[in-house]
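Worked example 3 (structure in, sequence out).
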């Protein structure tokens, strides 16, 4: 795990070429969140080694929202995102074939996330360290073909799940509108 750089706030901007990743860019369930108008950009000098590449894998080492500690993120684009402090960049020391997309899912398992949370420190805002993250056990598969199959299956299931959530949210809105309509007619004495 490599710590991020403490970029100077005097160079934070509301627009620019380089996006400054923060824990706010993480979804609690893992993944990159574009912060829209709240996104931070940086236009100061950038030290070597802190501009990220697409699919670099980072973990949130500070819990700004419940469930965020240990949340993984894959960098969506090369040469645009900066490795900020309190974000841990996963760097492999082994020659074993491991896809960052596979590791994203391995680090997003319930058991991994619970251990990171349980070994974290702090009462109001929990923190972890590269050492604690590296001490956490993860079950890995070193066959790249099987890793790819697992990633494709999980990403396909996520898309289907997201579609179902959207579908049922639409149905819930329709049901709420129907309920309001029925109540309005009932109070107006129009129901028979």
């Amino acid at each position: 795990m490599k710590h991020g750089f403490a970029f100077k706030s005097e160079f934070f901007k509301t627009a620019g070429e380089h996006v400054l990743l923060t824990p706010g860019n993480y979804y609690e369930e893992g993944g990159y969140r574009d912060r829209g108008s709240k996104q931070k950009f940086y236009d100061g000098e950038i030290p070597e080694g802190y501009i990220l590449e697409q699919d670099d894998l980072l973990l949130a080492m500070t819990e700004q929202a419940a469930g965020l500690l240990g949340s993984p993120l894959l960098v969506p684009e090369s040469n645009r995102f900066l490795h900020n402090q309190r974000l841990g960049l996963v760097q492999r020391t082994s020659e074993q074939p491991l896809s960052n997309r596979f590791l994203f899912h391995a680090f997003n398992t319930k058991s991994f996330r619970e251990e990171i949370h349980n070994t974290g420190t702090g009462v109001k805002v929990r923190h972890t360290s590269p050492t604690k993250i590296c001490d956490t056990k993860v079950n890995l598969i070193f066959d790249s073909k099987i890793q790819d199959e697992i990633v494709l299956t999980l990403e396909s299931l996520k898309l289907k799940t997201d579609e179902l959530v959207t579908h049922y949210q639409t149905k819930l809105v329709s049901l709420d509108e129907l309920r309001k309509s029925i109540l309005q007619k009932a109070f107006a004495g129009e129901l028979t």
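Notes: Residues 7 and 180 are 51 Å apart (CA to CA). The chain has four helices and seven strands.
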